[in-house]
Amino acid sequence: MKQNIFPALKLTLICLVFFSGLYTLTLLGIAQLSPNGGNAETVDHDGGTQYTNLAQSFTNDGYFWSRPSVVGYNAAGSGGSNKGPTNADYLAVLQARIDTFMVHNPSVQKADIPAELVTASGSGLDPHLSVKAANVQAARVATNRGLPQDAVDQLIIEHTDGPLLGLFGPATVNVLELNMALDAATK
């Protein structure tokens, strides 16, 4: 029995020290090298502080909508729904999101709705959309803002971030930054 207990205790102690101490300090050190020293990225807008790296709820037709959030865009409760693709409740929620999107975007065909506009991200806090998801909303936003479609399309282009290092991941659009640019363009 001693042959099994002491190695298990040693491994537990090593893992505890590594994952609770060394690993945590290593990640903290790497975060200090990132922009803002690993802190949240904030901007001041309309008299308040907004977090650019956390999704926020936009429901007004004059704004680009963020990806849905299962946790109500609450960073303290980050997470997904954990419901499978055949779960009846999940399918009902998806259908409701599709119906809502179609009502507010009548010029868009159901087949053209990007999945990210009706499905929540794993964290529920993803602040970015694909360029396609922004483009599919452009007509609604332009109409409700009284802007030409070309002006809204240009704002999307100006606020598109390319893949990381030009290689990793898709081009994305930060929804908050794009909506702030819309506010600036219509003032």
3D structure, described in words:
This protein has about 190 residues and is mainly alpha-helical. The chain folds into 2 domains: about 1-40; about 40-185, no CATH class. The chain contains 6 helices and 5 strands, in the order H-E-E-H-E-H-H-H-E-E-H. It has helices at about 1-35, 90-105, 130-135, 140-145, 150-160, 175-185, and strands at about 40-45, 50, 130, 160, 170-175. Strands 3-5-4 form a 3-stranded antiparallel sheet. A hairpin with a 2-residue loop joins strand 1 and strand 2 (about 50). The termini are far apart.
Draw up the topology in text:
Layout: H1 2-33, E1 42-45, E2 48-51, H2 88-104, E3 128-130, H3 131-135, H4 138-145, H5 149-158, E4 160-161, E5 172-174, H6 175-185
Antiparallel strand pairs: 1-2, 3-5, 4-5
Helix pairs in contact: 4-5
Number of domains: 2
What is the count of helical runs? 6
Largest sheet: 3 strands, antiparallel
Percent helix, as a range, is 40-55%
Mean pLDDT: 86
Quick summary:
With about 190 residues, this protein is mainly α. It has helices at about 1-35, 90-105, 130-135, 140-145, 150-160, 175-185, and strands spanning about 40-45, 50, 130, 160, 170-175.
List the keywords:
6 helices; 5 strands; 3-stranded antiparallel β-sheet; two-stranded antiparallel sheet; mainly alpha; 187 residues; globular
